[in-house]
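WARN no homologs supplied; continuing
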Amino acid sequence: MQVESAGEGRARRVYRAARRWSGAAALVALSCWAVQGCKSEPEPTPSEPEPEPAPVTRPLPQAPPFDACEVDADCGFGEIDHEIAGGEDCPCIYGCPYLPLTRATIERRQAQYESACDPRENGNGESCGVDDCARPPAPACVAGRCSAAP
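OK structure emitted
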């Protein structure tokens, strides 16, 4: 009866697995396993954890309340729900206004969107789809805030 060491047993398993693979992939796998698992540098010893980076904050444009109004004509519906300070703030918009906002807010956010955003993708680089929309109700100024007409 022959007793094999742990290293020989591992080598035998690697060889059997490599036989199932083809050509270059097998050579790469065998050479990596033979040289301590393809590690090019030793793993660092645990020490103090690295501090997390501080979140990046950008000043947003100074804006009046987004839904304050005096008359119905001050109001409209938009679909951008936040100020856009840079490309990473860009949402996908679909031409489906649903948020009761002041006309000034709608125009300001639309101008921010047009100057900073690509309509084909959001701020994370994800593609924007296409959507069909229902028409929003008439806007109204109710108790000093833009909303849908009752």
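The chain has three helices and four strands.
OK
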